[in-house]
Amino acid sequence: MLAHLFAVVLTLAASHSMPGSCAGCDFSHMDLSGKDLSGVRYAGADFSHSDLRNASFAGARLAGADFSNADLTGADLHDARLAGADFRTAKLDGVKLDGLDCAGCDLQGVDLHGRSLHGLSFPGADFRDANLRDVDFSGVDLCSRDEPATVNGVVVSRGSKIECGDFRGADVRGANFAGVLLCESNGGKKTCTPVDAATLRAGTRSSLDGAKLP
After folding, report:
1. Domain span including residue 48
2. Contact at 8 Å (CB) between 177 and 198?
3. The pLDDT of residue 189
4. Beta strands of the chain (E only): which ranges?
5. Do 122 and 52 have their domain in common?
6. What end-to-end distance do the CA atoms of the chain give, in Å?
7. In degrees, to the nearest 5, what angle opens at C-alpha 52 toward C-alphas 48 and 54?
8. Do 70 and 28 lie in a common domain?
């Protein structure tokens, strides 16, 4: 069964036609450069080590997808939903990120030098050992609380611990963390508030030396 599915995927890729929905499919080590994959639903798909230069994933649903060691140079990820996706050591030069939701993404070792992430969503993301020099984190949804107590879906007691991802070993010199946000939902309503420098240092597990803090 798995061998048949893999053969189907290879045939579709070779014929320049890709399925609109393919949860868990293996597209690793493939040349998908320039492909239009906008709006696809590929939760858990494996794109590791693939050539994805100038491919479009605009509006795609890619929760848990594996992009580790892939080349995404010039790719379009705007409005993509990528919760829990793995981008370890992927090439992200010139990637379009507008409207991106990357909650819990693994971005270890990526190079985002000089990029603006303003207004994007990265709560719980792992930025360990990444090059984040001069990155603009202003307005980024980066922090969250531990699980709150709820009754019938309504928060009655907020969590006390605030997490802001993991920045250990990251180069944050010149990065702007002013205006980083803690966003919370209550009864379907999302509210965001800026966090202070002490909260950021504790929540990111980093002293954030050389960065601009609130």
Report:
1. 22-90
2. no
3. 86
4. 141-145, 149-151, 154-157, 162-163, 181-186, 189-194
5. no
6. 54
7. 160
8. yes
